[in-house]
Design brief:
5 strands; five-stranded antiparallel sheet; Nuclear Transport Factor 2, Chain: A; alpha+beta; single chain
Length: about 130
């Protein structure tokens, strides 16, 4: 019995240790920490437009609480702000991921990261939905 418990706990710890954060969670944490230059480098076409957009977004959002992954976007009335690579086509395949956080002002925020399919978080666009109280 003890052996089975040890094996199960070991498997659970291993899975947790190797869990990779979604692209949206990574982006939200970088924005929250003010690391916009690092985040800009994750776009497939980093450049001054992307860097300016991310800096503006970080200033507008301010500091945030804990970031958590979301399985899908939430419904509700929100204001959407986006930063995308220049010349992004209106229709393009992407891998999507979502994350949630709360600003220090108490606003709920959801991040949608649109990344190149099959890539390791090579961003095409980052969308932020701010749900006002």
């Amino acid at each position: 019995m003890f052996r089975a418990i040890v094996v199960i706990v070991g498997v659970m710890v291993s899975c947790t240790s190797y869990a990779i954060e979604s692209c949206a969670v990574q982006a939200a944490r970088l924005i929250s920490q003010g690391k916009t230059a690092e985040l800009s480098g994750r776009f497939i076409v980093p450049g001054p437009e992307v860097a300016r957009g991310l800096a503006t977004l970080a200033d507008e959002l301010g500091s945030m609480g804990e970031v958590s992954p979301l399985p899908q976007p939430s419904a509700g009335k929100s204001v959407r702000k986006s930063v995308a690579i220049p010349g992004l086509p209106a229709r393009i395949s992407f891998d999507g991921s979502w994350a949630a956080a709360t600003t220090r002002r108490g606003e709920r925020i959801e991040f949608q990261a649109s990344s190149e399919p099959g890539s390791d978080c090579r961003l095409l666009a980052l969308h932020v939905h701010v749900f006002r109280k």
